[in-house]
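Possible regression after last week's pipeline update?

I re-ran a chain I had predicted before the update to compare outputs. Posting the input and the new output here so someone can diff against the archived version. Not blocking, just want to make sure nothing changed silently.
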Amino acid sequence: TAIKAAVLIQRWYRRYMARIEIRRRYTWSIFQSIEYAGEQDQLQLSSFFTFMLDNFTHLGGASPDLISQFLETTSDPMKEEGRAAKYEKIEVPDSYPGPRLSFPLTVAHTNALLTAFKQQQQQLHARYVLQLLHETKKFLKKLPNIIHLSTSYTKEITICGDLHGKLDDLLLIFYKNGLPSTENPYVFNGDFVDRGKKSVEIIIILFAFLLLYPNDMHLNRGNHEDHIMNLRYGFTKEVMQKYRSHGREILLLLQDVFSLLPLATIIDNKVLIVHGGISDMTDLDYLASIERHRFKSALRPPRMSIDSSQDKGRRQTKGQLPAQSSDGHRSISTRFSSNHLVKQSSGALSSSSSSSLSSSIPESRRMSDIQEKDTSMTSNGRHQLHHRSISPTGILEVPFLDSNVTITPRVPSWEEMEWKQIVDLLWSDPKNQNGCTPNSFRGGGCYFGPDVTLRLLKKYQLKMLIRSHECKQEGYELCHDGQVITIFSASNYYEEGSNRGAYIKLGPDLVPRFFQYQVSKFTRRMTLQQRVSVAEGSALKSLQEKLYAHRSELIAAFKQHDISSTGKWHSSNVLEDYRTVSTSDWASAVESVLRLDLPWRTLRSRLVRLAPDGSVEYMSCFEDLHMGQPIKEVTPSLVETLYRYRTDLEIIFNMIDKDHSGLISMEEFRQTWRLFSSHLHTHVDDAAIDDLARSIDFNKDGSIDFNEFLEAFRVVHKLDSKEKH
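New output (post-update):
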């Protein structure tokens, strides 16, 4: 009897753990899919901005100054020193209670910074921030693109992954592993900023230790060390909130500093450390020769005028551009962007782009199809790209604010080829299958298989590749037969208890040792089921909001499957009686619209109500959601558009709102909307925009509080509303 009872308990426990694991896995899939979908949106928006800058500023038409003020790289960080003297004019009052820095820095300075940030005291004064950034910039100029380290001078080197503004994780790493020093060197592998609320404090600490221990503190660039990414993911907003008077100066200096960060680190000539990954075109010798400071944003290829189709003034490079891979997986020509938008017969926007950026976005999410290109080698050893234009005339039609302009396609520049090398290093992810394919989930970089890894390691006589860029539940993950290691150091990245953080220690034997941790005041007290439930609830809320944002498209897709139903539809897409479709049809319809590659059948019971016969009452997935403060003057279709693209709209607004006051004039609002509607290629009557602007000018002072405007287009969960009341 005792044995039977033990067997029954064991079976029950295994089933219980299996159910927990299923919930944990689909929760993780939801978080990652929504995160990568957001990155695709950012790449698409940035592709549009790039197109506007590269073309319309040269056509004598309306120059998009609101874009250029944020995206244009007007200064060369290797030569421009005009910002250096500005910080000297800033006075620090005697009443300032925070840390005071003087250069060169000492251990006392770094200790003061750590203490102040740990105790959440006053922010470091803007004068010291600017001086620290200036000194960091001067130091980074001297560094090569690829840093070479050796374990012969020390016992072990510590390697950390993404921190993403999570200061508590950085402080815990220092507590467990010790502060950086000559005896305790560190490599931080990019993505120090964005998402978290303490990005400013993190870069101050990292840059301070970099200056204090220049031979023992090493920082690689990540894909978020990019001023365009910072617009969407919070770092720009954080800087402006913490340093209103000098925020813009700090941001401009950070553009230079980020562009000067090294691209890779190699330990003992055996271990390659990059932020994202590699591709079948990655050439370390060629990367070593690139002038990295010219690429202030990996989302923005080097600007070249339309006249550059003749490739005038192409820079002589030290390295040899890598030729096509021996296995013929992919030619170099398919991976460079001409960044033109194409107006197809359907009227939708299209952009010919590289497989490393917008061309890899799934058809439902990207602005364009890819313009095909061929490549051949010229007599001087460089690649000449030949375009096979989609248009039979070879002319690209470009829609812009009701105007059509024709632009002849140009040959991608040598600078763009260098840019692509950097994009792959910062954005790529490993996959289990052989080959190298566009990274369709992120929309940037590529997926590289075990064969690509093996080929690169063999070519450069390396032992392993350490990269970051992806959140892992345990903080790290091995793939490609242990030759690729992913390390991620931001715990609780998606939600409290969602994942651990980790770091690696490498000694002379080059055998990695992993150390895990989790910053939390509450997680330790929670059971496994409670931790999974909290993360699951957060993920499902985000997914429900995604469903609501695509409500019209989903309803149209459901209608196509709900052929036999006899209920009545109203013009407002509201159903009198609940309609049902089969589970298979429901899952197919949702995936066709959202393209998140999620286990919809498994998620069915968590998102919709089921009929007695097991079919799906599909309208029930919208029941628990409603808009926060609906504005009468806005039509339902416009409300949905505003909600779906509210982040893009906010980015455009932030470009216009130069002082980050949160207020813009009526004309600036119209300018924001015109650019926004041009990005989406949707036409909204000017009168409708004026009505909308007047309706949200609540105090009739001619200015619009944009934060209040965005709040009106925020989805509210009904259960949350009930809890508040």
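Follow-up from reviewer: compared with the archived run. Confidence is low (pLDDT under 50) at residues 56-66, 304-409, 566-576, 719-725. Marking as no regression found.
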